DNA sequence: CCGTAAAAGTTGAATAGTTAATTAAATTGG
DNA sequence: CCAATTTAATTAACTATTCAACTTTTACGG
């Protein structure tokens, strides 16, 4: 038993300095407040953030369709969650499921016309929202600096994660 | 009616440039992956991120107690959500509710001994986790740059939000 | 004072998300 | 070729979050 270690804690991990704390807190606050705000801005269109991200992924995909697994990976969700999410969006008429020829276990999530139309209608407002509450609040060079220093973190985290 | 605007969209909001897109995506990915990772690292201790943040707030508070409203504001949650959250933590023995003399509508959330003990036990591991997956992945100057460019965003968002 | 409004907090029902188990199809290695 | 695994996806049961309605107490305006 080590008796009374001098200050921070009993492992070899240093406590956060004041600067680190503030940076960390700020990141945390921005994350949460931003998501809340974007969600609020989407509400008038009857979409959640999650709905929107599915729409984006499908819109950008070949033929407006993606395998469930790929869509789950693309949106960083578990398969289960995606399955529920797609069921809801199917009920809302935004997407439909289609079975896959080449692998009969598989399913595609496919954008419906209504889904595509919704996307086209909502996207400009969402982009405006992202600009207003995030992008336009940085100097261009700061935004690039942000991306550069965040990219390795994203990389690191992607390697860490087992199954969402 | 403006007929066929040339490219991006029909309002005066510009689409995101490639750089902006990448910065935005990266921020988004880091936010989500990081929260997942921290949550996973807390799991062995039987705590969620939310639990932990409540504990932090109460630990740092005068007398280990805070009014429900203040705690809700401090953790950026709705009152309803906090109320449920505190009920769960109360059942887990980490906090207790105490009524308030000066304002008989009000309640305090108070850290129990067990809550405090849990906090002291878990905090080093959580800090290590935050270091490993975030703080230590930046050069010190980059972290400060991050904070400086994010701070106004946080500020902006705080002014925007009505009632969570 | 008194009535009306605002604030603090909770509650219940509805929606969303997680976890673990399950089904069905494909892969793989003897 | 076929048993054992692995992969794709869903489902059921549980937990967490939101949303709207409600209770109690305080604050405000005349």
UniProtKB/TrEMBL annotation, chains A, B:
Residues 20-155 form the HTH marR-type domain. PROSITE patterns: HTH_MARR_2. Pfam families: MarR_2. One of its GO terms (molecular function) is DNA-binding transcription factor activity. Gene3D superfamilies: Winged helix-like DNA-binding domain superfamily/Winged helix DNA-binding domain. It comes from the Bacteria. One of its GO terms (biological process) is response to stress. This is MarR family transcriptional regulator.
């Amino acid at each position: 038993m080590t008796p009374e270690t001098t200050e921070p804690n009993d492992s070899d991990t240093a406590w956060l300095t004041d600067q680190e704390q503030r940076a960390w807190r700020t990141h945390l606050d921005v994350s949460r407040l931003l998501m809340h705000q974007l969600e609020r801005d989407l509400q008038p269109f009857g979409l959640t953030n999650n709905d929107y991200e599915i729409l984006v992924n499908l819109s950008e995909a070949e033929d407006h369709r993606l395998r469930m697994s790929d869509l789950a990976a693309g949106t960083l969700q578990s398969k289960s969650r995606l399955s529920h999410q797609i069921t809801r969006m199917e009920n809302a008429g935004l997407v439909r499921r289609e079975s896959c020829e080449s692998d009969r276990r598989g399913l595609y999530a496919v954008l419906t016309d209504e889904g595509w139309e919704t996307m086209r209608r909502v996207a400009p407002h969402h982009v405006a929202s992202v600009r207003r509450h995030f992008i336009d609040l940085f100097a261009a060079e700061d935004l690039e600096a942000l991306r550069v220093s965040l990219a390795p973190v994203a990389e690191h985290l992607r390697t860490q994660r087992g199954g969402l």
